[in-house]
Specification:
Blueprint lengths: L8 E6 L5 H15 L3 E6 L13 E7 L11 H10 L5 E8 L8 H13 L1 E9 L5 H25 L4
Parallel strand pairs: 1-2, 1-3, 3-4, 4-5
Bound molecules: flavin mononucleotide.
């Protein structure tokens, strides 16, 4: 269901080896497009770090590696966001993992902790391995949180709050 178009520009940047996080990223992109957001999807290798500044909302997708670790190819994005420290930037982090491991989706937790401090973290989402049909709803909910925050911002601007 397409709602009225948003003025926010979203980037989804993800890393995926076996395709689980890629599927989740695509589900989130569909939810965002359906809810009227201008949304671009990038694999991390295709994303220019300088482009972070072009987006109002950056949604970061990562699988987890080693023992709860962020995969190597995501380190430069982590460091760039941490260094920029833009409190006006809205972010979300999502990922897939395997609860067999001690730190389920540990990379999502590590991004979350940094994004919470350095940006306005709006949402997190963790999925067990391959996304399922019921995860569509969770992706829609994640995007709704961005929509709600946008509406709150619009409403406080209208009433003269900053
Ligand atoms: C060597 C190795 C280490 C992993 N370590 C973790 C881990 O610590 N925590 C976790 O939740 N998942 C872990 N996983 C599982 C992957 O994160 C999971 O399979 C994920 O869905 C892969 O995402 P992708 O299909 O997008 O590549 C590990 C997988 C491998 C192969």
């Amino acid at each position: 269901m397409a709602l009225t178009n948003s003025s926010l520009r979203l980037a989804i940047v993800y890393s995926s080896v076996t395709g689980n996080t890629e599927q989740l990223a695509e589900m989130i992109q569909k939810a965002a497009l359906d809810q009227g957001f201008r949304t671009e999807l990038y694999r991390i290798e295709e994303f220019s770090l300088a482009a972070i500044l072009d987006y109002d909302v950056v949604l970061i997708g990562t699988y987890t590696w080693g023992s709860g670790e962020i995969p190597e190819e995501m380190h430069s994005l982590y460091q760039a966001v941490e260094k920029l420290g833009r409190k006006e930037q809205w972010t979300a982090v999502f990922g897939t993992g395997d609860s067999f491991f001690a730190e389920f989706c540990g990379a999502v937790d590590r991004f979350r902790d940094m994004l919470y401090v350095k940006t306005q973290l709006v949402a997190t989402l963790k999925v067990e391995l391959t996304p399922q049909q019921n995860d569509v709803l969770r992706c829609e909910k994640l995007i709704e949180l961005i929509r709600e925050k946008e509406m709150q911002m619009f409403s406080s601007k209208k009433h003269g709050y900053r």
